[in-house]
Amino acid sequence: MKVTFYCSLCLFKRGYEAILEATEDPEIRLKAIRRLLQLLSREFKPTAVPAVIGTMRERLIKEVTGNPDPYAEKKKISNMEALKILPYAENIISSKRNGEERFRTAALVSIVGNIIEFGIPGHEFTFEDIRYLIHRAEEELAIDDLSEAFRTARKAKSILFLTDNAGEIAFDTLLVKELKRIAKNGRITVGVKGKPTINDATLEDALLVGMDKVADDIVTTGSDAIGFIPSEYSSGFLKTYEDSDFIVAKGMAYAETLTEFELEKPHLLLLRTKCPTVASYFGVSKNRNVAKML
């Protein structure tokens, strides 16, 4: 997925807000914003992929400000707020009649969790929105490949689940639990970022929300890269990816990058279309739920 006109504001605004989070020093802020504008001037071209520029942006901000995790506090708050809602979502899933309905509902809850994202122009959310959006999730599902995904998961011997944001990862535990039930003889591995970047989930976030209690294993990408950028990953993570026969990928950054590859194995993209570029790529409206098999 290539950048569009709309990505220009998003790439800048997210950088601007990350700088504000990273430091209160006015001189460092000015230096960081100048470097950010230079980066965008150099890298923003029609052949660019949004998440790749986003990775460069976040690394630049961390380098200039000296703050390795600008969103640390917001990530903690996101996890705590999501955990408060988790029993409510779990009760909805457990009320479903059969395995496929539970899987479907868990996937929709997981997608709703993808609203927990900061700095995207035109995207605002409150944690109170989540309960409401869970009940609207089916109605707002614009691409529905969940039946195909269920059949694929049933046959899978190894599933890799790639997480997106802190907070959101709490709701992902419910879907991982259902995947374990479906793939009875399969192994479920959860992949998180190897280092902090934006508000993406790391191993610390995964352990805090109890992902280690539902997944067979948790691995890190070995990198702070946003989205799927194999050249940035550790050899251990790449082996895990290559050995998996079904990959579930959360969020827009994985959608932006995985669509750049000719994939040899089935992938399920789960996301909320929070920007015009991603929405347009999938041919749906903004603020819609997507469950797309690749």
Describe the structure.
The protein has 294 residues and is α/β, with parallel strands linked by helices. The chain folds into 2 domains: 5-65, Helicase, Ruva Protein, domain 3 (Orthogonal Bundle), CATH 1.10.8; 72-293, 3-Layer(aba) Sandwich (Rossmann fold). Helices cover 51% and strands 12% of the residues. The chain has helices spanning 5-22, 26-43, 50-65, 72-94, 99-112, 129-136, 146-155, 168-182, 203-208, 235-243, 252-258, 276-282, and strands at residues 141-144, 158-162, 187-192, 217-220, 246-250, 267-272, 289-293. It has a 7-stranded mixed β-sheet, with helices on both faces. α1 (5-22) runs parallel beside α3 and α5 packs antiparallel against α8. The longest helix has 23 residues, at 72-94. It is globular, with a radius of gyration of 18 Å. The mean pLDDT is 97.
